[in-house]
Amino acid sequence: MVIILGNSNKGKKKRKWIGRLALFLSLLFIFFICAAFSYNYVLKTQDESTEKPLPNIPDDKKIMFEIPKGATSAQIIDKLADDGIIKNSFIFKMLSKINGYDGTYKSGTHILSNNLDNDTIMRILSSDPITKKILIPEGFTFKQIEDRLYKEKLIDKSKFASLASNEKFDYKFLNGIPSGELRLEGYLFPDTYTFDIKSGEKAIINRMLSRFDEIFKPEYYDKAKALGLTPKQVVILASIVEREAKEYEERRLIAGVFYNRLRSKSPNLKKLQSCATIQYIFLNRDGAVKPKLTDADTKIVDPYNTYQIEGLPPGPICCPGKESIEAALEPESTDYYYFVSKGDGTHQFSSTLSEHQAAVKKYGLFN
Predict the structure, then answer these.
(1) One domain, residues 255 and 349
(2) Residue 217 and residue 225: Cα distance in Å, rounded?
(3) What is the DSSP letter of 221?
(4) pLDDT one-digit tens code per residue, 2-35
(5) pTM for the full model?
(6) For 198-249, what is each residue's pLDDT tens digit?
(7) Range(s) of the domain holding residue 79
(8) Are 166 and 179 in contact (CB under 8 A)?
(9) Closest CA to 120 of 42, 213, 52
(10) Which stretches in the chain have pLDDT values below 50?
């Protein structure tokens, strides 16, 4: 008898291959089913999490947790464990990945506590950090800005003043301005800012200087040069215009008056005689402006008293807005050398002393 084994072995191999293929396809099917269920579960969990309000954490339980810029999810989770906010970083990392939170955590300061569940922590860290919106009005002085930031608990006054006086900030408009008190007067641009509550003094200063840099365009340097002024002198003049002008339409007129005086050959006319510069003296000395200036106030001995000194004062008297800077760079050409407040926010402009004296008689010099 002859036994043929070849076909039998081929059949066994074929059945074995089919069995393995069937097992593979079954496992693949199970994998996709599980993946689909997992995906639906994650979406459902995220939707439910989104609908849940974030917890209101009592003050005595609050932990300020800061996520540095550029931190990875793994680094953030390790920091949570190091700070004792979570117990198991491995489980948290798995849940963070499964629930789709990896890569969503936002840099900045977040408020956490030790008794939060993992999902709540993930939702908090994925939400916007704790910030404060601050309005810095046009015409605010450095000290007024400092007071507002301090009131909002964003800065330490002594550190803020020290950095502003001595720190080197790399901006073209600060070239040639020496270190010293109120060195940044005029350059902390007035605007509405949103600061992280832990931004820090240097970051806040940099943000405001950067905003000034955006506003003070490259062509402004050329315009200043064409007027025979340095960028600092433009800002000084703009700051005086800012404090003098109430109406937008008058800014260029007021700037034109000051330019006429600066270019005058008369020693008396070269004195700008700006009440705003005297008020700046009172604001820095007493913390408030005077309701009404007197003739005696014009005789105060101070380098900022433009009734006594010729030309521009040594520095800006406030932080001017964009319109005042542009007015200082594009003054209106007139033959006016004088103006006096009418008491309603507008001014009476005059070309001669006799006209001005008549206007003063009508409206009063120190309204």
Answers:
(1) yes
(2) 14
(3) H
(4) 444 455 555 666 666 666 666 666 666 665 565 5
(5) 0.78
(6) 899 999 999 999 999 999 999 999 999 999 999 999 999 999 999 999 888 8
(7) 60-126
(8) yes
(9) 52
(10) 1-5, 36, 39, 42-43, 47, 49
Q: Do residues 137 and 116 share a domain?
A: no
- The two structure tokens encoding residue 110: 């977040």
Calpha distance 258→72 (Å, rounded): 56
Number of domains in the chain: 3
Among 83, 102, 126, identify where a domain stops.
Answer: 126
Token digits for 162? 């020290």
Between CA 267 and CA 176 the distance in angstroms is 28
Show the CA angle centred on residue 246, arms to residues 244 and 249, nearest 5°. 105
Place of tokens 């043929």: 4
Task: Identify the CATH number of the domain in which residue 95 sits.
Answer: 3.30.1490.480
Asked which of 190, 215, 240 is the last residue of a domain, the reply is 215
Query: Are residue 232 and residue 312 in the same domain, yes or no?
Result: yes
Q: How far is CA 350 from the centre of its chain?
A: 41
Indicate the helix (H) or strand (E) that contains 225.
helix 218-226
